[in-house]
């Protein structure tokens, strides 16, 4: 089996600077020691392991960022998620390494070089510094990558030769163990490999023997390979605080692009997004943005999100945003008419989602029928595209415009009114305490409006609707 | 050559075209209105209907058309009262293709109208709005034309706005016992016309009275003797 190891010595720093396009000396510091430094900082003579005080002395305008192990872990996961598009079997090696099994992929890419070109693409996009090496065993690849071998070794003998020439301190052994070996007079790894294992084990402990064995073990590491998550979930920490909701457009666009890259290859779409806004001094808020048809394109989601965000008044500056998905479903091409009229840009579902996100869910409705003889209850308005009944409950003529509350007429229709039909008695609803007893008339009033009137048993007259 | 092309696409109107009916019309399903408008409602564009008080029959004028054309969505924006689903279903309107939008302010109503038209999935739009300015009307008109949609703008003015709004047609409605009286103030591509009476008795027999037929059209029996039809002789 063939293995490729990718080593990212300054993963967190590179990602941060790439986002910000920052070109000043900048270092990542943990426990007062420089952990990662960008090339501009190195020019000032700052090295890895330099103390913070010394680094500050070397360069006055140095930007110092705290190291965050969790963040680096997250970045490594994101990177794995991206590389998974190219390579099927990969293992995370926290904090800064990725191990890829190449032998299975070579047939697909027609050789190691083409495969490597594919892999380099996402790394270059992200502006990452990396070292790499390929070898016959996972550990050999790791050791070679960490010393900066940066070569694709196709032959096992080549790798073995390189390994045997490695100085004992650069072989990835514990410092104490390496020191012990050095004191024995073993300056290269090859010298240690040449000694009988059992004797080494007795004198220097089992760890060294395991290490030497693993250098030649071709099989996969014992931990399980990376499996991409089934649901999209991402959080973006903003480098600057955002105080206007419309300014969220740009960070949001990045998240949505990642969403598209996540959903596209899986042939999925989602029916809703949950956008989390984390405020500086307040509890986080979640916005729900829906699209009934389901959507995977980042651009379409951005338009929907912006409709909602435009109306949002931020209570405090935002420091981070996160994105979760809801209602994942397989992508299916929407049935389209062959001869559909030009300009069919949106589906009804997309239009409804757009309207709902701007006007609120209650502003966009559809009318549904119900089997009830009481006119107010014979139909209702509900969210679009749910179940519906299409069979009218009655065959008697009904007005097209109906008042939700009947309006008192105040008087009996006089001779100027022309009764066209009636009475039609509706007496119903004794079972749910909203019983009515009304005699309905259709009448034309002096203004020419055709009204739907009713009379109660107490001789009160009401206007209930118009035959508009 | 260019002129021919423009004429073919009906972008140029010549006075002599009056006689030839425009085939790019949709029937209103009222025969006398279709005859009067030389084909019916325009295929696309903005039609202003000045209705006066609501309930005189303005929707009855449109329902037969809406019941026939249901390949795409029909959007109703800000109706003055609840839309009775039973009545719409009775007249053959597919409620699953009907969308009802209620907006807080006129700006939002116009925004939703424009969005619905621009989506391309809406064939007819009925908008209740008190007033439109010329730029607003122009935007709706252009959106409707670009997306093959027809928008009816209903307002409660007795007479249509006098200012020259860029609309495809402008009509004012007044009630009659037989149906409606339509005054056509503007109809793109046609000369101004005298008012037209829409007879609704055929479709709504219980709401309207039959129109009075001129006596000379009905053959009065002479001496109560009726000629036997030829086939039965």
Give the SSE layout:
The complex is a heterodimer of chains A (468) and B (233).
Chain A: E1 3-7, H1 11-20, E2 26-30, E3 33-37, H2 39-43, H3 52-58, E4 63-66, H4 69-83, E5 90-93, E6 97-101, H5 106-109, H6 112-125, E7 131-135, H7 138-146, E8 151-152, H8 156-165, H9 175-183, H10 189-194, H11 197-204, H12 206-216, E9 233-242, H13 249-266, E10 268-279, E11 285-295, H14 298-310, E12 318-330, H15 348-359, E13 364-369, E14 379-382, E15 401-408, E16 418-428, E17 436-444, E18 450-455, E19 461-466
Parallel strand pairs in A: 2-4, 7-8
Antiparallel strand pairs in A: 1-6, 1-7, 2-3, 5-6, 9-12, 10-11, 10-12, 13-14, 15-19, 16-17, 17-18, 18-19
Chain B: H1 2-8, E1 25-26, H2 31-36, E2 41-42, E3 45-50, H3 58-68, E4 73-77, E5 82-83, H4 85-90, E6 98-101, H5 106-119, E7 122-128, H6 134-146, E8 150-155, E9 169-175, E10 179-187, E11 196-199
Parallel strand pairs in B: 3-8, 3-9, 4-6, 4-7, 7-8
Antiparallel strand pairs in B: 1-2, 9-10, 10-11
Written account of the structure:
- The complex is a heterodimer of chains A (468) and B (233).
- With 468 residues, chain A is α+β, with helices and mostly antiparallel strands.
- Chain A folds into three domains: 3-24 and 61-216; 233-357, DNA polymerase, Y-family, little finger domain (Dna Ligase, domain 1, 2-Layer Sandwich); 375-466, no CATH class.
- Helix content of chain A is 32%, strand content 28%.
- Chain A has 15 helices and 19 strands.
- Chain A has helices spanning 11-20, 39-43, 52-58, 69-83, 106-109, 112-125, 138-146, 156-165, 175-183, 189-194, 197-204, 206-216, 249-266, 298-310, 348-359; strands at 3-7, 26-30, 33-37, 63-66, 90-93, 97-101, 131-135, 151-152, 233-242, 268-279, 285-295, 318-330, 364-369, 379-382, 401-408, 418-428, 436-444, 450-455, 461-466.
- In chain A, the strands form five sheets. In chain A, strands 5-6-1-7-8 form a five-stranded mixed β-sheet. Chain A has a five-stranded antiparallel β-sheet with strand order 15-19-18-17-16, with no helix packed on it.
- In chain A, strand 7 (131-135), helix 7 and strand 8 form a beta-alpha-beta unit.
- The radius of gyration of chain A is 36 Å and the shape is elongated.
- Chain A starts with a strand and ends with a strand.
- With 233 residues, chain B is of the alpha/beta class.
- Chain B has one domain: Rossmann fold (3-Layer(aba) Sandwich), CATH 3.40.50.300.
- Chain B is built from six helices and eleven strands.
- In chain B, strands 6-4-7-8-3-9-10-11 form an eight-stranded mixed β-sheet, with helices on both faces.
- In chain B, helix 5 packs parallel to helix 6.
- The longest helix of chain B is centred in the middle third of the chain and has 14 residues, at 106-119.
- Chain B starts with a helix and ends in a 34-residue tail after the last strand.
- Mean pLDDT of chain B is 83; it is low at 214-221.
- The chains are: A alpha+beta (468), B alpha/beta (233).
- Chains A and B meet through helix 15, strand 13, strand 14, strand 15 and strand 16 of A and helix 3, strand 5, helix 4, strand 6 and helix 5 of B.
